[in-house]
Amino acid sequence: MEFLLPYKMTIWVLGSVGYLLLLQLVVLDIAILSQKHIPGFTIEANHEHFLFRANRALANSNESLGIFIVFVLFALFSQPIAHWINGFAVVYLFGRIGHMLCYYFNMKILRSIFFVVSLLGLIGLFVTAVMAWL
């Protein structure tokens, strides 16, 4: 496990992403309870409703989570320069936090910008890992 020490920040980001998902789930559950939404029924697709935005924020985070985990594993086993992997993992986390907050507050353009930030983090993780193999 000593080979993971240089990637301590990336591992911290993995835990933070897990916490972020938990936070989004709690926010969604509170929104569901406060709106008295009946479980099993579709949430109305309306960006003007917080319940919809909270649901989409969690769904969007889940959509990129698998890619993030796979790219982190690829990077860890490729053993590229650690500060690049750590940096791109932080970029991804920053993008996901910004995306979530912008979704909650219905800031559409800024939300898209933060999506691109998290996407750049993912691309950076992948490219850095690939470059370690070359």
Structure explained in plain terms:
With 134 residues, this protein is an all-alpha fold. It is built from four helices and no strands. α1 runs antiparallel to α2, α2 packs antiparallel against α3 and α3 packs antiparallel against α4. The model has no long low-confidence stretch (mean pLDDT 95).
Strand content: under 5%
Q: How far apart lie the N and C ends?
A: 24 Å
Q: What does the radius of gyration come to?
A: 17 Å
Helix content percent band: over 70%
Low-confidence stretches: none
Topology:
Blueprint (H helix, E strand, L loop, with lengths): L7 H27 L15 H29 L3 H23 L3 H26 L1
Helix pairs in contact: 1-2, 1-3, 2-3, 2-4, 3-4
At a glance:
This protein has 134 residues and is mostly helical.
Structural descriptors:
134 residues; mainly alpha; 4 helices; 78% helix; elongated
